[in-house]
Amino acid sequence: MTNAEKTKCHAIIHSFAVACGAGNAVPVPGLGLAVDTLTMTSMCLSLASVFGGNLTEEVAKGMAIAALKRTMLKQPIKVIAKELAKLAPWLGQVVAPTISIALIEAAGWALAGDLERRAHRSPAMAGAR
Fold first, then answer.
1. CA atoms within 13 A on the CB side of 37
2. What local confidence, expressed as pLDDT, does residue 128 receive?
3. pLDDT computed for residue 109 by the predictor
4. pLDDT tens digits for 63-114?
5. Is-contact 51 123, C-beta < 8 A?
6. What is the pTM of this model?
7. What is the pLDDT of residues 32-50, one digit of tens each?
8. Residue ranges of domains in the chain
9. Around 83, how many Cα atoms within 13 Å sit in the side-chain half-sphere?
């Protein structure tokens, strides 16, 4: 990944992670997963453009869900804590967004790495660069 690509990815990942954190401040257990999936899908579409690719929304959603799954399986305690924290008034509105931002940042960088590898392998993505 070039420095320019890293800079663009950092801006995209960080902005989507912060937006996702705001969405996870709502104290409704389970809603955070929907927000995470929607945010990751949009992030995937934005990241694909950094590497010269153009994905359909369905492909982006599949990649986003896979990246979220991998990240959640590596950090299951954080996922459980995020959802359980929402049951505690006030505390949940601080803890859940914080954990969500960390998870989305990690999943976003994993997704960026996947997209970069695809761009170098795929003539369609690489040709658009």
1. 13
2. 42
3. 92
4. 888 887 887 777 777 777 776 666 677 777 777 788 888 888 988 998 898 8
5. no
6. 0.76
7. 778 888 888 888 889 988 8
8. 3-127
9. 13
123: amino acid identity, one letter:
P
Quote the pLDDT of residue 123. 54
Give yes or no for a contact between 118 and 111, defined as CB atoms under 8 angstroms apart.
no
Hey, what are 31's tokens? 């809603």
- Is residue 111 within 8 Å of residue 44, measured between CB atoms? yes
CA separation for the pair 12, 118 (Å, rounded): 18
Hunting for tokens 């960026």 — which residue is that?
Answer: 112
Long-range (24+ apart) CB contacts under 8 A made by 8-14 are 8/50, 9/47, 9/50, 9/108, 9/109, 9/112, 12/43, 12/46, 12/47, 12/50, 12/108, 13/43, 13/47, 13/104, 13/105, 13/108, 13/109, 13/112, 14/105
DSSP structure string for 11-53: HHHHHHHHHHHHHTTS--TTHHHHHHHHHHHHHHHHHHHHTT-
- For 122, other C-beta atoms within 10 Å of its C-beta total 15
